[in-house]
Specification:
Layout: E1 30-35, E2 41-46, E3 50-54, E4 61-67, E5 73-78, E6 84-89, E7 92-100, E8 105-111, E9 118-121, E10 125-129, E11 133-138, E12 143-149, E13 160-161, E14 169-173, E15 179-185, E16 190-198, E17 202-207, E18 213-218, E19 223-228, E20 234-239, E21 248-253, E22 259-264, E23 268-273, H1 279-284, H2 288-299, H3 305-311, E24 318-321, E25 329-336, E26 339-346, E27 350-355, E28 362-363, E29 365-371, H4 379-388, E30 392-393, E31 395-396, H5 405-409, E32 459-461, E33 469-471
Parallel strand pairs: 4-31, 24-28, 29-30
Antiparallel strand pairs: 1-2, 2-3, 3-4, 5-6, 6-7, 7-8, 9-10, 10-11, 11-12, 13-14, 14-15, 15-16, 17-18, 18-19, 19-20, 21-22, 22-23, 23-24, 25-26, 26-27, 27-29, 32-33
Amino acid sequence: MEDRRSLGIGMETGECAGGPDGPDGAGLPFGCASFNQDSTSLALGTKTGYKLFSLTMVEKLDCIHDSAETPDVYIVERLFSSSLVVVVSTNMPHCMNIYHFKKGTEICNYSYPNKILAVKLNRQRLVVCLEESIYIHNIKDMKLLKTLLNTPSNPSGLCALSINHSSSYLAYPGSATIGEIIVYDANHLNTVTMIPAHDSPLAALNFNASATKLASASERGTVIRVFSIPEGQRLFEFRRGMKRYVNIRSLSFSPDGQFLCASSNTETVHIFKLEQLGPSEEDEAATWTAYVGKMFSAASSYFPAQVSGMMSQDRAFATVHLLTSCQKNVCTLAIIQKLLRLLVATADGQLFIFNVDPLDGGECMLAHKHRLFGDDNDDDDDDHNEGTGIEGSEVTVPTQACPSYAATAALPASGPVTATLTGYSEDGGAKKGEVIPEHEFAAGPVCLDDENEFPPINWCRDGTGDGQARRS
């Protein structure tokens, strides 16, 4: 999947699991899956339309919207927990449709010269990625601000867009042959830096929530690196295994930026901890993993440089072993019911929720499994449940209405926003009195009509690339 937080499968974030034209597409009930920017929602592109799920409970998965208007959706991205959804269908792969799903109306549609490969969005910008060009829109009025033409060939549409309210960094491949990353400031429309991240082409990218770190993986999939933003300095290097040529499906930071998860085409999902251990802390470490790591470090001086360099790198802090491998998936780390959870959506239509121990790590325990289609009481699920002791649950439709885009995007009229504002509700998620993440608020006023929504007119690009739009 985004950035590869999409099985889309943004699953920014972005990442498409089991897309309709991919090898995993045949026979699957959906074409893509993506977690929204703060992992409070899961979007699925299906053969008949798209589905939106709220991720606020472990044992209950609420389907908040089920659209059957656009068939064969292979890109679907939701803007945080607002009513704004971006959809692209295989029937019209050059056209992007933006909907107000709560009202069931189209906000606007734009056409592009070639097939749309990825769409990323935050409070300020909407980015459309084609194979050799990138279009940057102002999300407030959908004005085309910049077109990056003749970018290096990017057949997977790999890119990542930061979600922090004060910045809009865009990361995309700077080369088709090596792992260079271009970091572009989508707010000020200028290149920030170029990062020589890997020797082989890039496979996955993602920013942390505060836009101070960028994680990357190459097509080899053995090493994951984390860089500082905007400086581009290497901060961490993690090795997910010694096996070469593993396909990294997705990368995702935890909300606080202290953990990074990575899924691949193997059955193992790795969680790394971003911490710099001092000598005293290393001496006090008493876990078996720490002991083995110290033994490797001590022995590494006796091996050739390439081997010792590999052995001295940090190992996974925690792991999850899925039931199957070689299928597309997307993972994310989220706080659900005040605890850190790992969520993995797989191309066979299942969502796994694991508990993560932020202190000791180790093997994560399966907390719940949800079927995204059909009945959780199917025979294959019963077999799995017997082995794990975890019961599946049916997908239910909540009665609570979703907030409008204007309600979730606009700043309060009174005074500056801080990270301790309360009273925000996302599909029944954050209750009154809980802290609102700082990145939930846009920087500056959002001029939207509360009645007609964002924006109150329809636009349609003519596909010439000149940035002109016309009323429809």
